[in-house]
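Record 1 of the preview.
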Amino acid sequence: ANLIAEHLQVIAKKEKITLEPAAAHSIARGAEGGLRDAESMLDQLVAFCGEKIAESDVLNVFGFTSEQTVSDLTQRILRGETPEAINLLHEQCEAGKDMMRLMANLIAYVRDLLVFKAKPDALNQDVDPQFQRSLAAHAEQISTDRLLELIDQFAAAEARMKWAPNKKLHFEVAIIRAIQSLGQATLDEVIEKLGELRDGGRARPPGAPSVQPVAGIVDAGRREKADASKAGINDPGYSRVRVEEKSAEVDPERIWQDVLAKIPAQKGFVRNSASAAHVLGIEGRNFKLGFAAGDKAMMDILSTPANRKFIETLLHEITAKDWTLKQSVGEELAPRNAVVPEHSIGHDFKNEPLIQEAIELFNARVRP
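->
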C-alpha cells in the first residue's frame, strides 16, 4: 500500500495535483494492491474534485471508511463496549458507507494485528507509522488465540452478509458475538483458575523451583567440570558435551515416571492423560510418547498448548535439558487404564467445594 501511495504522489506531482498523503493511502487501500485500479480511482477523483484531493473526498466518492474509524471500532470491540460499537456502526451506515467493505476493512485490521503480534516489523512497507502505533496499542490488549477467533467469526459473518438483504443486521450480530466471546473464559483459563482454587489461591512465586532436577545429571555436570579444571581444560564446551553424553544414558521410562510423580493433584486431567502414554524413547531433543487408538482423547488433552508446555517444563526441570514433546497414535499399543480417584466412585462431585467455587466464579450451572 505504501508503494502504491508513493506512486500516486509521483503522478499527482507531475500532473500538478494536490493529493494529501492520507488520501493517497485511502486510494491504495481501496485498490487492494492493484496499481491500475488505483490510477483509475485517481482519475475519477480528479474529475469529481478538481486539482485538490483530500481524504474526505476519497471516502465520500467511493464510500470507503477511514482507517481511524476502523481502528476506533476495533478498540470498542476489544474493550467490550457494545453500545458504543453499535452506535459507531449505525453512524457509518447512515453515512452511506458500504457494510461489506467495512467488514472487509475490519477483518483486514484484525489480520494486521495478528501479523504485528507475530512480527512487528513485517508491516513496515504496508502501513504508515501512525497506523503502526495504533496496532501496537491494540496488540497489547488481546492474545493471538483471541485474534484467530475474531477472524473466524468475522469471516463467517462476511459470508452471511454477502447474500443477506439486511447486511447491517448481520454486522451487528457479529459485533455482539465477538464482544461476548472475548469476555468468555477459555478452557485453559478455567483449568488454571481451578488449579489456583485448589491451592487456596496461592500462586507459586516466579522463579521458585517446583521440581528438583535428576541428581545424577546435575552431579555428573559438576564432576565433569571439576575434572576438566584439574586436567587444565578451560574449554567451557567440554563439560557441556560430557553432560549431554551422560543425559543421553538416562532411561526415558525413569524420566517419565518422575514427570508423573511431579504432576500436582489439581491437574487431574493432565495426570490421567500422561498415565495413558507409552514412552517410545528419545530421538535427539524429542521426547516421544505413544497412545493406543482408544486413548486418542488422552493425547488430545495432553496436546493443548498449555498442557504441552507444562510437560516440557517438567522435563526440562527434571533433566536440565530442553525437550520437545512428540506424540502419536500407535495401533499396536495396548490401552492403559486411566487413574481414577477412589473418592470419585459413587461420589456427588457437584458438592465438592472446588466445584462449587468454580460454579460461583464463572456463573455456571451443571446440566444432568
